[in-house]
Amino acid sequence: MFENLEIFSMANALARHSASRQSVVAENIANADTPGYRARDAASFAASYETGPGQGLTATRPGHVFAGEAEYSAEAKAVYRPGAASPNGNNVSIEQEMFAAAEAAGDHQKALAIYRSALTVLRTSLSGGK
Q1: What span, in angstroms and rounded, lies between the C-alpha atoms of 9 and 1?
Q2: DSSP state of 55
């Protein structure tokens, strides 16, 4: 039932995206001493959500021919992060990774707050404001 409401699907996608970004950051930190390792980061949530469901063409009648909605995955797509490399070719900056981890945690908290607020509004509307 809740997955049909856009606010809940967006909050879910943001939570999944932030978890995926946290995973990419953890991988970067784990490889901080690996020679030649290039730090990665996740594409922004806004960029990945713009291509989500409901953004493409849809058929209004059964006879319409269309390509269908694009597959949407809230999984963060890793992109290589530019940066100065150390002598061993590794460009992981622990400070930058700590900042990215804090951003991902903040995004996850934001997703949970959106979900809770929307659920409160839904409960209030269903109970008639009582």
Answers
A1: 11
A2: S
